[in-house]
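For reproducibility, we list the full input for the zinc ion complex.
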Amino acid sequence: MYDLVLKNGTLVMPDDVFVGDLAIRGEKIAAVGQGLDAGEARALDVAGKIVLPGAVDPHVHMALPVGGTLSCDDFLAGTKAAASGGVTTIIDFTVGSRESTMPDDLENRLKDAKDSVVDYAFHAEMVGWTPRRLNEMREVAERGVRSFKFFTAYSSSGRRTENGPLLESMRVLAELDALAVVHAEDESIIQATLDQMTDEEKSRMRALALSRPDVCEASAVGSVARLARHAGARVHIMHLSSRLGLEELLNARRDETRITAETCPQYLLLTDDVYERQDARFFSASPALRTAADQEALWGALLENNLSFLSTDHCPFTREQKAWRGRFDRLPYGLPGVELMLPLAYSEGVMKGRFSLSDLAELTSAAAARLYGLYPRKGSLMPGADADVAVVDPEAEWTVKASELRSNCDFSPYEGMPLRGKVVATLSRGEIVCREGRFTGRAGRGRFLAR
Ligand SMILES: [Zn+2]
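The corresponding predicted structure, in tokenized form, follows.
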């Protein structure tokens, strides 16, 4: 009556962790419990292993066009990397432009993603605002894209949405009960800081952090929150990086703004010290990496549920793509991450005693699935859910080496970092797509998740 039974694993359920079996029929979880009879089904002994809901990385950029190049993982390479790290759902973005319509952007991105190995959804990117976009948003929402990405920076590429259009857009989102997801950095603060910098200063990587200070994040969070409250819309802040930004988030929430935020492993585990290193250019990212005090505030917020979940902002560029061109702002911004989200969260979160296994499942899977309308199909091991599962060996000790990761990226921001806990099997809708480091899935098996 089952097709596959995972036997004797430590099952991480929403409010319970117990040793038992997880049975799969077709693409779905059919039962969890003790001593389930595998019968004719294939049985996989996972004694001593932790069985988690497959991770959801709700913020990745595969094959993203940036300044004449593309982020180096296409959807096939990127979702293979995801699968080997226990990620069974990704949410990427459409690629907007001034010339195209948002429904066309979605059509094109669906083609880009057709080789995906795991399931995927999209946020629709708002670029080149005109009043016509309001109807385009309604159309795209009809087609299952329920979150819309806005930038408060990057006006040179048409990505910035000014406050007026943002408010109009949020009114439509409120009507649709859809979500605004925002890259929150105040561009005029960045510009004013850059205007005062000498060429000498711009020739050093440290200038990246100096030109995008924490106050630029805080200013944008406060402003976006005010607009959302006024429009009655829900808003989610992507890659929150600073203590100051966090304060604005909490202030807004006290005023009953419906605002949430995520942070990423790089903001929890790395600091702006990297900008003094020989290889500083590899760490070009926005927001920039911050201080140890910011890290501490972010960990605290994660543990107190003030930050809802982790994402990686996976946007990898190779060492060659990050070749130094004399100034920090000529580099493509972005770091690889999707493959390490779950191992880093397990090792640094659970093994270091910061949070429990249930918290791990919440922060890497359930909470993002809920916010983005994928729960309980994704994000849980409850019967009826898609059989998306990550099996972790808690005893495995290993060291991060980019050369051993599956991403096309040829460096890792975490190179040399010792980790405890390794993903030893990943199942996507009942199919084993990765086992003991071997990829066993197939291109194109991933499905678009209309929400
Ligand atoms: Zn991003």
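The chain has a mean pLDDT of 97. The pocket of zinc ion is lined by residues 59, 61, 313, 315 (CB under 6 Å). Both points were considered when choosing residues for closer inspection.
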